[in-house]
Amino acid sequence: MIQFYAPDIERTLQLPEEEARHCIKVLRTRPGSIVDVIDGKGNRYVCRLLSDDPRHASVEIESKIPVTPAWSTHITVAVAPTKNMDRMEWLTEKLTEIGVNRIVPVLCRHSERKEVKIERLQRIAVSAMKQSLKATLPEISPMTPLSQFIAASDAEQRFIAYCDPSIPRRVLAKEYHAGCKSVVILIGPEGDFDPQEIKDVLDTGYIPVTLGDNRLRTETAALVACDTFHIINQLNS
Hints:
Elements: E1 3-5, H1 9-12, H2 17-26, E2 34-38, E3 43-49, E4 59-66, E5 74-79, H3 85-98, E6 102-107, H4 118-131, E7 139-140, E8 144-145, H5 146-152, E9 157-161, E10 170-171, H6 172-175, E11 182-187, H7 195-203, E12 207-210, H8 218-235
Parallel strand pairs: 1-2, 5-6, 5-11, 6-7, 6-8, 9-11, 9-12, 10-12
Antiparallel strand pairs: 2-3, 3-4
């Protein structure tokens, strides 16, 4: 199945230019053909293509189908962006594929990357959503200072994963309770969180966790944590 992304399809009845060009020029779809369109808000539309304009292909909506995500817990992954932006882009793609609701780049004391252009990450998320046959686009927040993020965090379960063995940690897979309404995992930069940052986060009620005995890259740790939530939810469904 090929999905096209049109966030305002009900209002415009058109595919955006990039999607229209791919539909008409690359796939050579002709008027009268049925195409599947998603709005990123959890809906899939069965549409009939009315024109072959590669800039604004018009469609007629034949049906609207709500697509419930395969996971019920609202998952937020807050992660300090890696110095190599390619790794952050890879993480965005993979998180979207396995299922995530929100990705928050956080600015920490040891962060090697101080700013992020989220437009590129949003495009990658759109592509991954389409490829993995989802209909809900994860929210990608702008770079947020760590203190600001933890002050606003109200998830039912909140975890911080770090490497410093001198500050006691628990195993994430044993601490996460399946079926909760919302969860957030906080992953630090390549140089780990500053000890004072860990203390500040723990003071707000976060649970300190480890992801196991393996030493993981920042982006790997974020992906492993997110998939841990999914696996435990599936085992307990």
